[in-house]
Amino acid sequence: MDPLGDDIKRELQRFGPAAGMADLLEAWPDAVGEAISRNAWPARFQRDGTLIVHTVDAIWAFELTHQAEEISNRLGDVAPKALKFVAGPLPEPSADAPSSPNEQPPEATLEQARTAAEWAAAVEDPELREAVAKAARASLARAPSDRRF
Question: CA torsion angle for 104, 106, 110, 115 (degrees, to 10)?
Fold first, then answer.
């Protein structure tokens, strides 16, 4: 199977300001860092060459607007004419995206583990019961503030 990257770049060249989107998307994570790339992602170019960057919420948009010049400098040769940050949908993380190496899932308390076991007890298949209990423990152990809606 041949990679499509070169074909996609060639096709994007036909779209004026959006022509550099492939290179910009490739450079974005390294230029802005992990925290920003998880919470802000390039969405599209306006006709005047301004890059619209979607953020998870208005707070991120506000904060990144103040960092626009620094981000533009970090992007170097692929930097757009201007950056505009707005709250909007972000792409789903890829399945093979590396998780933070220091990030360990929280441990369930004894009470949470008991609750999870009670929930799973009605499942007849032992392997499925253990999988349900494990998922329930993980869900219960996760702090409400860690959940994203």
Answer: -120
**CATH number of the domain where residue 65 is located:** 3.30.300
Structural domain contains residue 42: yes
How many domains does the structure of the chain reveal? 2
CB 70 within 8 A of CB 64: no
Reply yes or no on whether the pLDDT at 147 is more than 50: no
Domain range for residue 114? Answer: 110-146
Return the amino acid letter for 111.
Answer: E
Other C-beta atoms closer than 10 Å to the C-beta of 54 total 19
pTM, rounded to two decimals: 0.55
Q: Examine the pLDDT at 74 and tell me if it is beyond 90.
A: yes
* DSSP-assigned beta bridge partners for residue 53: 42, 85
- Same domain for 20 and 73? yes
6 — pLDDT class (breaks 50, 70, 90): confident
Q: Alpha-carbon distance 55 to 139, whole Å?
A: 26
119-123 mean pLDDT: 90
